[in-house]
Amino acid sequence: MTHPIPNSYRTGPDQDGHFGPYGGRFVAETLMPLILQVEKAYEAAKADPAFQPELDYYLEHYVGRPSPLYHAARLTEHFGGAKIYFKRDELNHTGAHKINNCMGQILLARRMGKTRIIAETGAGQHGVATATVCALFGLPCVIYMGQTDIERQAPNVFRMKLLGAEVRSVTSGTGTLKDAMNDAMRDWVANVDDTFYIIGTVAGPHPYPAMVRDFQMVIGNETREQMHKAEGRLPDTLVAAIGGGSNAMGLFFPFLDDPSVRIVGVEAAGHGVETGKHAASLNGGVPGVLHGNRTYLLQDDDGQIIDAHSISAGLDYPGIGPEHAWLHDLGRVDYVSITDREALEAFQLCARLEGIIPALEPAHALAHVAKLAPTLPKDHLLVMNMCGRGDKDIFAVAEHLGVKL
Amino acid sequence: MSRIERRFQALKAENRAGFVTFMTAGDPDLATAEALLARLPAAGVDIIEWGMPFSDPMADGPAIQAAGLRALQAGTKLAQILAAVGRFRKIDDETPIVLMGYYNPVFRYGVDRFCTDAVAAGVDGIIIVDLPPEESDELTPQARAAGLDFIRLTAPTSDDGRLPRVLASASGFIYHVAIAGITGTRSAEPADVATAIARLKRHTALPVAVGFGIKTPEQAAAIARIADAAVVGSAIVENIARHLDTAGKPLPGLVDAVVAQVSALAAGVRAARKA
């Protein structure tokens, strides 16, 4: 470990958007003035006493926050160890944590006077959340989605269209999330005057990683308060799934400076990190620069980006948020990985024992909880972020289980 | 004096603008790309931009994206591109070569090693699209020390407040992106370009090349009347794509066809100020 341990893990990023050696603003000059504008507008919004109350209003009355912190008693009994809590962000409007961030960013876009919204999406959850807030505020919306993802997430494509969004199929590259992000950036470059780009995860050029984290931090802040009410103390372990890492960053951030809290991020190992067919950027990648930031990336020896693989379209991304890369190097957060097969088992177990069909993303987190919980004492408080519900995934899961719908 | 300085000095003496072409190194394969490269000076190209292919070229339109993918599918590596420049230098020691691309392949290759190897091969300058002044401190000192010009991009969105910072570490020439957009899409109005160049000239003494959206000899001539150089990229790359078979292999006549197109564009640029 070559970096000194900081006094606080909650001071990042620096003024240029760096988390240690990660993050930054690696974008074409055409975009640079826009990125600076977004940063300035976001700083002004944070300083405006009217901004947070407006966001809080919509989070309470439209999104349905706070989401419950639920004691998963049957799974706790089943694993026979740690006391397991779910942070129920799958109960939010639109069924995932994504809308926390979209609500914050669309309010910012409105403050900036932007009249057109674009976004990228992988599984479609961020696209649905973006289309939703655009419908709410009457703004036209274009969602970029890889052709491959459009085929495997048909219900979400239809949802976005119902909500009035235009879904543009991305055929460049390999037609997945990273290519959708490339095309969204290209759109933004060409429509600089009127367009706001709502990035869905804690990645991209500064200020996005910090801004998206801030908007998702409501997850961790609520968890802290709810756990205090339920148990009178801090949780002992936090577990969350990581694609880009926004739900995890939102849960983790308020606890980073509590040394007693063990924090675990779960990457998608696909067929297994050793097979090369995975989406585990920290466990199977090396640092590089993509989509405006420096972070761990899946890439070959010549610096070309390699396609990620995961059963979960939401984790199928060859990079990870730069703050996670930094926390990984510092050793503050443990990053582990879970295979497609393990996630599928956890998916089914959760449905049977808790009556909750999780999205495939948190199913990865739950699969790690299945390994961890039995090794821990019964008074150990473990919180897992149930960041999305699994309705969108039933077709893919059925196919993997050999069931014809 | 560098090759780039000598070239712009010579252009000034001839009272004409320079003609700059962009092609992707390794498109459709390295042998064909090298054969093309070798014929560019005689076809009237004053400065050669050679693209280093990248899997995720965010600032490029469909034509150059596809060219990059073809190059990568043909197995093109950065080290091979540098070696090809070295071979070109054995037949031409005058025409400046600028490598253009994205940061990750250079970062992965190693910044110090890249600057050293590029200069040793005979590369004169680099354009790294996604390395704005805010992030370029990790490359510009090494480039300068090695003797490699770091060519800055400016855009219609770079306002007067920002230009001094953008131009501070620039050398060689300035590449002005004529439109807010990606390569190979819209074309700029010459009047807007003239305004932009006048603004740039208040901030820098470096020559200004203009690119993005220039496709025909007429458009190239219009830009050549007001800029120090005109850059054509996508239109040439599209012509390469038209001379491929269904498997992406070069058809006979590809090189001649592209050279003919380049010659016509060069003639447009050369005639511009006499017209």
Q: What secondary-structure arrangement, pairings included, does this model have?
A:
The complex is a heterodimer of chains A (405) and B (275).
Chain A: E1 18-19, E2 22-26, H1 32-47, H2 51-63, E3 69-71, H3 73-79, E4 83-87, H4 98-111, E5 116-121, H5 125-137, E6 141-146, H6 147-152, H7 154-162, E7 166-170, H8 177-190, E8 195-197, H9 208-216, H10 218-231, E9 237-241, H11 246-252, E10 262-270, H12 281-284, E11 286-290, E12 292-297, H13 322-330, E13 334-339, H14 340-354, H15 360-372, E14 381-385, H16 394-400
Parallel strand pairs in A: 4-14, 5-6, 5-8, 6-7, 9-10, 9-14, 10-13
Antiparallel strand pairs in A: 1-2, 2-12, 3-4, 11-12
Helix pairs in contact in A: 2-4, 4-5, 4-9, 5-7, 9-11, 10-11, 14-15
Chain B: H1 3-13, E1 18-24, H2 30-39, E2 47-51, H3 62-73, H4 78-91, E3 97-101, H5 103-109, H6 111-121, E4 125-128, H7 140-146, E5 149-150, E6 152-154, H8 163-168, E7 174-177, H9 190-201, E8 208-211, H10 217-224, E9 229-232, H11 234-242, H12 254-271
Parallel strand pairs in B: 1-2, 1-9, 2-3, 3-4, 4-5, 6-7, 7-8, 8-9
State the gist of this model.
The complex is a heterodimer of chains A (405) and B (275). Chain A is an alpha/beta fold.
Structure description:
- Helices cover 42% and strands 18% of the residues of chain A.
- Chain A contains 16 helices and 14 strands.
- In chain A, strands 3-4-14-9-10-13 form a six-stranded mixed sheet, with helices on both faces.
- In chain A, a hairpin with a 2-residue loop joins strand 1 and strand 2.
- In chain A, helix 2 packs across helix 4 and helix 9 packs across helix 11.
- The longest helix of chain A is centred in the first third of the chain and has 16 residues.
- The termini of chain A are far apart.
- Chain B has 275 residues and is α/β, with parallel strands linked by helices.
- Chain B has one domain: TIM Barrel.
- Chain B has a nine-stranded parallel sheet with strand order 5-4-3-2-1-9-8-7-6.
- In chain B, helix 2 links the parallel strand 1 and strand 2.
- Chain B starts with a helix and ends with a helix.
- The mean pLDDT of chain B is 96.
- Chains A and B meet through strand 2, helix 1, helix 8 and strand 11 of A and helix 3, helix 5 and strand 6 of B.
